């Protein structure tokens, strides 16, 4: 008899029970929010980027998250070292190619990391299109998306097939694909886009969910749904982006299985 398909609440319960250690080499803007989101859902963050300890930290971690938002030559070396170590050990890892398409250097770094076999690639529409080489240079505008997730779905499929990674393209509706199967998630509120590092912190949550052993396609969809539901709950009592950010952290800690299953909008 086949194992039952895990529900979104099962993945969150696994994170809370197993407390996965998520090693994040993320950008300077995102560190605080990413660490606090991971703590709020029940995971353990570690933000280590010194090359001298990378191998040991990756070996101890349940998942790795690499975010190229604020590039620095030394950090790039650490990112590539961490990705290579994760691939060697079979540790699942997430690539967040922030701003890819904006500069030649960023494109080169993102391409090298993509070649290191990430488990999941998560980005906005412009980033996924740029990474898949499906659009002309200049499609990415800073870290904001100028291409809707639906427009980027074909590029996401192509990128998934070429990289053998799960590709999650986030936007007004989020799409997660392995190159053939597609899961759509329709949770969240537009005001989340007004808070810096929201997408970066989401990539951390994807890392936590793949770090507890849930199949990566489903784990990515579950992480995105959990994140969006927390945003919807927080928005009910928020008065602007500052209080939305704060209330989202509270929502993660208070989210129960019944509410999550009722509110999660996952189409597969």
TrEMBL record:
The keyword Transferase applies. It is an enzyme of class 2 (transferase). It catalyses: 5-(2-hydroxyethyl)-4-methylthiazole + ATP = 4-methyl-5-(2-phosphooxyethyl)-thiazole + ADP + H(+). Transmembrane segments: none annotated. SUPFAM superfamilies: Ribokinase-like (SSF53613). It comes from the Bacteria. GO terms for molecular function: ATP binding; hydroxyethylthiazole kinase activity; magnesium ion binding. Pathway: Cofactor biosynthesis; thiamine diphosphate biosynthesis; 4-methyl-5-(2-phosphoethyl)-thiazole from 5-(2-hydroxyethyl)-4-methylthiazole: step 1/1. Substrate binds at residues 47, 197. Pfam families: HK. Keywords: ATP-binding, Kinase, Magnesium, Metal-binding, Nucleotide-binding, Thiamine biosynthesis, Transferase. GO terms for biological process: thiamine biosynthetic process; thiamine diphosphate biosynthetic process. ATP binds at residues 122, 170. Its EC number is 2.7.1.50. Its cofactor is Mg(2+). Belongs to the Thz kinase family. Catalyzes the phosphorylation of the hydroxyl group of 4-methyl-5-beta-hydroxyethylthiazole (THZ). This is Hydroxyethylthiazole kinase. It comes from Rhodovibrio salinarum. The gene is thiM.
């Amino acid at each position: 008899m086949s194992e039952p398909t895990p529900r979104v609440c099962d993945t969150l319960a696994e994170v809370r029970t197993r407390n996965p250690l998520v090693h994040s080499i993320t950008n300077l803007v995102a560190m605080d929010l990413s660490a606090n989101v991971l703590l709020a859902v029940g995971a353990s963050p570690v933000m280590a980027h010194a090359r001298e300890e990378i191998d040991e930290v990756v070996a101890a971690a349940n998942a790795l998250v690499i975010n190229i938002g604020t590039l620095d030559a030394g950090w790039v070396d650490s990112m590539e070292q961490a990705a290579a170590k994760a691939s060697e050990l079979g540790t699942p890892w997430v690539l967040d190619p922030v701003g890819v398409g904006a500069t030649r250097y960023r494109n080169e770094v993102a391409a090298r990391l993509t070649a290191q076999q990430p488990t999941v690639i998560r980005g906005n529409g412009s980033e996924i299109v740029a990474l898949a080489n499906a659009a002309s240079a200049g499609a990415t505008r800073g870290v904001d998306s100028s291409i809707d997730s639906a427009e980027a779905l074909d590029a996401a499929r192509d990128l998934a097939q070429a990289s053998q990674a799960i590709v999650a393209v986030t936007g007004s509706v989020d799409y997660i694909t392995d190159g053939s199967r597609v899961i759509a998630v329709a949770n969240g509120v537009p005001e989340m886009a007004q808070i810096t590092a929201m997408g970066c912190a989401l990539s951390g949550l994807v890392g936590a969910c793949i770090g507890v052993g849930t199949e990566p396609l489903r784990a990515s969809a579950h992480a995105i749904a959990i994140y969006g539901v927390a945003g919807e709950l927080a928005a009910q009592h928020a008065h602007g982006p500052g209080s939305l950010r704060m209330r989202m952290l509270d929502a993660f800690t208070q989210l129960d299985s019944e509410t999550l299953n009722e509110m999660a909008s996952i189409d597969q």
